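Course assignment 3, question 2. Fill in each field.
Student: A.L.
Task: Predict the tertiary structure for the chain below.
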Amino acid sequence: MQDYALALQGGAGAVAGRDYAVTEEHLGELAAECQRWLAAGRSALDVVDYAVTELEASGLYVAGRGSAPNSAGYVELDASIMDGHSRAAGAVAALRDFVSPVQVARGIMEKTPHVMLAGKGAVEFARANGFAEVPDAADYYILPVGVNRDEISDITHGTVGAVALDTSGHLAAATSTGGTFGKLEGRIGDTPLIGPGTWADDNIAISFTGTGEHIIRSGGATAIAFRYRSGVPLVDAIEEALGEIKRLGGDAGVIAITSKGEIAMPYNSQGMKRVSVSTRSALHTATFA
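Answer field:
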C-alpha cells in the first residue's frame, strides 16, 4: 500500500498582521478528517471533493458562502475538479446561488461529455440534477475571516483548494472561488480552468490561488506540471512559475503533491492559509512564513 498525502489551501489573500487562528483551526480539523479518509483507503477524488465542499460551506474563505457580489450586485461562483489517473475533469463558471460549486463541477465531469458549463447552462444543469441551492442569497453569503466591509475594494482575491494522493497511488485536485471582490459581471479567473487553476495527472496534483488573470497568462498549474514531468525538481518548477506571475504583476500561492508524496505549499503574497499532512509528516497548519 502506498503512502497518502494531503494539502489544503484557504487562499493567498491573507493580510500580514491579521489573526487567522479561526481559519487555521478549521483547516487543521478538516485535514485531520481527510487524513482519516485517506488512511481508510478512500480515493483522492472523493477526499478533495469533500474537503472543498466543506471549505465552501464554512463561510470562512472567499469561496462558497464567503463569496462577495460582483459589480452587478450578485454572487458568481467558479470551481473545478480533476482526477489524475483518468484525467477526467469537470468545471463550473459564473454559477449563481448553489451551495457547493465543486459538487456541481464533479457532476459535470460524471454526468456530461463536457468539461465546463457556465452561467445559465450551469444553473439549469445543477437544478436538473438536484444540487442544493442557496435558500436566500441576501442572508446566506457572509464576509470571510480577515475581510472588513469597509475595505472590500482592497481585497483582490481568495480561493480554496485541495490536492491529495491516495493509498492506490492516484492523485486528484479541486479548487473553488467566489472570485475577486467587485469583479465585472461574467468575469472568470483561473479557478474553473483545467490547466491554469487546477491540474492532476499521474505525476502531480496542483491547486492555485491568487490573481487569476496573471495565473492564466503565466500558464499556471500546467506550467508547473510540465516542468516537473521534464525533470525539474518540484520546488524549482513552482518557483519558476511564481516568479513569472510576479513578473507579470500578480501574486499567487500553490499547493502541490507528487506521486512520490512530496508536498509543496509556497506563495509570493503576504500569506496563504494552508495545511498539510501525510503518512510521513505530521499535520502542519500556517498562514504566514
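Instructor remarks: The chain is about 30% helix and 20% strand. The radius of gyration is 17 Å.
Grade: pending
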